[in-house]
TrEMBL record, chain A:
Name this protein carries in UniProt: Phosphoribosylformylglycinamidine synthase subunit PurS
Keywords: ATP-binding, Cytoplasm, Ligase, Nucleotide-binding, Purine biosynthesis
Annotated organism of origin: Phyllobacterium brassicacearum
Iron-sulfur in keyword set: no
Matching PANTHER family: PHOSPHORIBOSYLFORMYLGLYCINAMIDINE SYNTHASE SUBUNIT PURS (PTHR34696)
TrEMBL record, chain B:
One Gene Ontology molecular-function label: phosphoribosylformylglycinamidine synthase activity
Designated name of the protein: Phosphoribosylformylglycinamidine synthase subunit PurQ
PANTHER family: PHOSPHORIBOSYLFORMYLGLYCINAMIDINE SYNTHASE SUBUNIT PURQ
Catalytic activity: L-glutamine + H2O = L-glutamate + NH4(+); N(2)-formyl-N(1)-(5-phospho-beta-D-ribosyl)glycinamide + L-glutamine + ATP + H2O = 2-formamido-N(1)-(5-O-phospho-beta-D-ribosyl)acetamidine + L-glutamate + ADP + phosphate + H(+)
EC number: 6.3.5.3, 3.5.1.2
Species for this entry: Phyllobacterium brassicacearum
Amino acid sequence: MKARVTVTLKNGVLDPQGKAIVGALGSLGFDGVGSVRQGKVFDVELDTKDRAKAEESLKAMCEKLLANTVIEDYSVAID
Amino acid sequence: MKSAVVLLPGLNRDRDMIAALTKISGVAPHTVWQTDTEIPDVDLIVIPGGFSYGDYLRCGAIAARMPVMQAIREKADKGVMVMGVCNGFQILVEAGLLPGALMRNASLKFVCREVKLEVTNANTAFTRGYSHGQIIRSPVAHHDGNYFADTETLARVEGNGQVVFRYAEGTNPNGSINDIAGIINENGNVLGLMPHPENLIEAAHGGTDGRALFAGILGVAA
């Protein structure tokens, strides 16, 4: 089973990298970019075929390692 | 005073830390490897700086999940002093032993320079070698030292006097909230700081301002 975990900064947490990207996009002529928030994507392959179990397991992985829940939110999408 | 230095792949300030502890206390620290589940009977455990696991995922994230951290958590719960410097500070926040998070420097640049620090709480087992409000010099070298905590956590940390070092005189090198350079836990036995006091302990370093931190912790004359 394949899944995609997306980790993004929580609202209110400053993202200097996102701001630098907005600046770079502007210098390339992409006007009208209000903001960019940079995040991370993890493509995970699991042995199980049980969707519920997979989701539970992925959430535990996010809580324990993939995300720092002090500053980041996460979402899990299973194929 | 017996101490131990934690070793993890990718750390590079371990030798400096061992040298500082040895020179100031006269006794070489024990060394503890990341997979060790038992730590010798010591009064102080130090996690030095560097780039554990290449800063993969997040700085300190992988190191914080190594078996030795469980042993450190148990020691800290019993009141043993724990100090994390630079990557060591990042590891302590990732492990949840200190509140908040350390994010990418606001400038997005690696900073390697000298800063000024204000000792904002000298009434701790770590900072008793300094006086309240004292300004000291210290080197910094990091890419992710931008301390962040949510409003509620920050108010608690500030209210409890847990901020022990602040960047002073406009030298904040990383955008850290409230100029925070170093914090302790609520019990006062876990310290994390981004600057490198171990690199300013003898004349050959160009100054000795870091010496009083170790002398205070180790209970010896600076």
